[in-house]
Amino acid sequence: MEYGHKYEQLSVEPGYKAPDFRLNDEDGRPVSLYGFLGDRSVVLVFIRAVDDADTGRQLDYLKDSYQRILYHCGDVLVVSWGSVAFNKSLVEKHKLPFHILSDEDCAVLKKYEIYNPYDKLLGPNVFIMNCAGLIMFMYNGKNPDDIVTMADIVAVLHDIAESGGTEVYGGVANRNI
InterPro entries attached here (predicted)? Predict the structure, then answer.
């Protein structure tokens, strides 16, 4: 989406509403971010569409921590620029309990301002949204082996749950940075 004026651009950072999107999951079913949110927080993870040791470690790390994330009223949604078939192979290979969505044209990577024209995505990127869709945390990996700590993710989810799930005052998001 192109904007006519720089002031019309959306900010993709903590304290602002996350851009919605609709992508196909590993089984070809459409999933939208706001449809997925429901009454829980979402840990939105962008990964490279490469079946290598770094991507495998990131997916296994999320899988091993998935019950902790659920316990803290969160869920995981992963996005890669891989095809539906490629993402299905990752889900099956790693026995993942969460979806990997296909962003083959990188439209969502661009919308979230993490697209790199040379590598598409330098490292994993993590956004945590509360149930209102506000970005409460973001992590931009600088290389393929960067992994945000689970302690950071759990701390954010805990803070969101303690605040009742949303931090909106008079229609304006509490800037949590």
Answer: AhpC/TSA, Thioredoxin-like_sf
